[in-house]
Amino acid sequence: MRISRPVALVIAALTLAPWGFFIAFFAYFGRHVPMVPPSTNAPPAMVFRDFNAMFRLQLFSMAFCAALLAFYIVHVFRTDRVPADKKALWAVVLFLGNVFAMPVYWWLYVWPKSEARAA
Question: Which of 64, 91, 94, 96 is the most exposed place for a label (fewest CB within 10 A)?
Answer without folding.
Answer: 96
